[in-house]
Amino acid sequence: MTATAALCGWAAAAVATALALAVRHALDDGREAVARACHELRGPLTAARLGLSLQLRADEGSRDRLRAIDTELCRAALALDDLSVVRRGEWSGPRLTALERVDPAALAADAVEAARPRAQAAGVGLRLLEPSPRVPGSGGGGAVWGDRLRLAQALANLIANAIEHGGTEVRVAVGTRARTVRIEVCDDGPGLPAPVAALARRARRGRGTRGRGLAIALAIAGRHGGTIAAAPARTGARLVLELPAAGAVPRGDR
């Protein structure tokens, strides 16, 4: 075999290996996208069923409870839309569609109401704290600009993680700082087993399910120009969803 033929053989082998790796990564990404959509289907459908069960036992027409159930069912529909995008091979993360001004206090109140049946079933206390005073010059009056259902999806995952892994009480608080809106989810459990980014990376690589909801929330926050980070806490975990105050349209799909 000549040197040229050997070189061509090595080049062909390298290209074949690269293509095989690319296909494997694409399949892994597709499987993870489907796993995330299934994760999202389970969460809201369980919350909706528990909410309806409590509603029937209480025999009272709570507008807040019914609105929360409607939001959870909309989240389930959103997950089905994500699955259809995956099936077409067009998945590139959560897409933002219906952009509007969102009141973070109302968003948090609805998320807490939606999660309350799950918290009760798990024997976990769930509280929405009074909003902290707005910081002068925060801009946007405390509102954020984004996709309300996607933001509800992100916050619901943070609260669900706290209920499942965070001990006996979960607290949700809303406040503003400078030009950002902050929604905090705190618990009294053992704390995070790893940094936020590391947990999300593990889930994205299909290594366990503990960080899958966190990875979903991180992706949604990023599409809104925001972040999710762990903040110092005396006990348990304290996760902060930080979003830019209303004033600029977030980057993402329109």
Give the topology:
Elements: H1 3-58, H2 63-87, E1 99-102, H3 104-122, E2 125-128, E3 144-147, H4 148-165, E4 169-177, E5 180-187, H5 196-204, H6 212-223, E6 227-230, E7 238-244
Parallel strand pairs: 2-4
Antiparallel strand pairs: 1-3, 4-5, 5-7, 6-7
Helix pairs in contact: 1-2, 1-3, 2-3, 2-4, 3-4, 4-6, 5-6
Give structural notes.
The protein is of the alpha+beta class. The chain has a single domain, classed as Histidine kinase-like ATPase, C-terminal domain (Heat Shock Protein 90, 2-Layer Sandwich). The chain is 55% helix and 16% strand. It contains 6 helices and 7 strands, in the order H-H-E-H-E-E-H-E-E-H-H-E-E. The chain has helices spanning 3-58, 63-87, 104-122, 148-165, 196-204, 212-223; strands at residues 99-102, 125-128, 144-147, 169-177, 180-187, 227-230, 238-244. It has a 5-stranded mixed sheet, with helices on one face. Helix 1 (3-58) packs antiparallel against helix 2, helix 3 (104-122) runs parallel beside helix 4 and helix 4 runs antiparallel to helix 6. It is globular, with a radius of gyration of 21 Å.
What is the CATH T-level topology? Heat Shock Protein 90
Quaternary status? single chain
Order of helices and strands: HHEHEEHEEHHEE
The separation of the N and C termini measures 56 Å
* Relevant CATH superfamily: Histidine kinase-like ATPase, C-terminal domain
Q: Classify the helix fraction into a percent range.
A: 40-55%
Tally of helical runs: 6
Q: What is the arithmetic mean of pLDDT?
A: 76
